[in-house]
Specification:
homodimer; Arc Repressor Mutant, subunit A; DNA-binding
Chain lengths: 168, 168
DNA sequence: TATTGTTATACTCTATAACTATA
DNA sequence: TATAGTTATAGAGTATAACAATA
């Protein structure tokens, strides 16, 4: 019972548990702050933030879905909510008539700007209070390769469609 | 426009983004593996794992809810599902007649044991492939204080029973 | 009176499959 | 035929508030 065939590195296990717990607690706190301050969910905030960080303020729907690990229909749903509030706009892509380009509006930018301070306050207070700046850098250095590694493996939102009816 | 009143440490910001993205991607992958291999959600798996790790194989409901950052009603719901499948049992606490003690069953332990290898495979493959053992230890060393710090702050989910040392 | 856990409810979110249109 | 996005649908999960029982 306590000696299963799979010998796990306890160090890894500890890191994994800590990561899960920390991100879970952080996520909860963020979710609440965003909700209270701007009526935003974390998902919608992420969408807005991604758009805002983009040079063009725009993204292709599928790309965005991939970036946030979402099904396309899920993104359509969230985009609909954001659009209804005037925070984003959708339009057919210029280069590809099949595509849809979602763009952040001025109101969207303003909202992000308005929430950011409180958002960062939560993040700073919860995540970085016990960490030095150097620690933060170390954390990034550790997680950045992991992120790239995870992104390299393609759990794409589009792949689900491909693997499905493709008996051909 | 590029000089808002809130000056954020870009290093911290990077660490935060990386953490969010990594944990999100990891969570998705885990969720899928647990579902495919055992029909478990991440939340239910966490409940079982917590119980299994406990010396007694048991926990008080509220304690468990706190541990997993859940509302008590949410835990009641999940516990109901687990109990229906014979993976846990609930009984009135011996010392406190108001309380309920939830315990993992043999079937529950067996299921956890059965899923663990695949689970760890996912975690190892996604999270630790780009990390050395030393990196993993560093990661833990960074996140452990954060976890404790977060735990020290009053959890929002437990607001209804927040009278710890406050007021009165 | 405060706390524990459950219930009832209402709501949000997510994924799947079918559908339209473009490539 | 394959891809991009939407829609319809259906199910799961969560929190809140009211409630019963115990401290």
């Amino acid at each position: 019972m306590s000696d299963p065939p799979h010998s796990v590195d306890p160090v890894q296990l500890g890191a994994y548990f800590a990561l899960v717990e920390v991100s879970s607690l952080l996520r909860h706190a963020i979710e609440q702050q965003l909700h209270d301050d701007a009526g935003l969910t974390f998902v919608r905030f992420q969408i807005l933030r991604r758009l805002q960080l983009s040079t063009t303020g725009s993204h292709r729907m599928t790309d965005l879905a991939d970036a946030i690990v979402f099904s396309r229909s899920g993104l359509t749903y969230q985009a609909g909510l954001l659009e209804k509030d005037g925070l984003v706009v959708r339009a057919r892509s210029a280069d590809d008539e099949r595509g849809v380009t979602i763009s952040i509006t001025d109101a969207g930018r303003a909202l992000v700007e308005a929430v950011l301070p409180g958002h960062e306050e939560v993040v700073t207070g919860m995540l970085f209070e016990p960490l030095s700046r150097e620690d933060a850098r170390t954390l990034t250095d550790l997680l950045e390769p992991v992120r790239e590694h995870m992104r390299a493996a393609p759990p794409r939102s589009a792949s689900s469609r491909r693997r499905k009816g493709t008996s051909t």
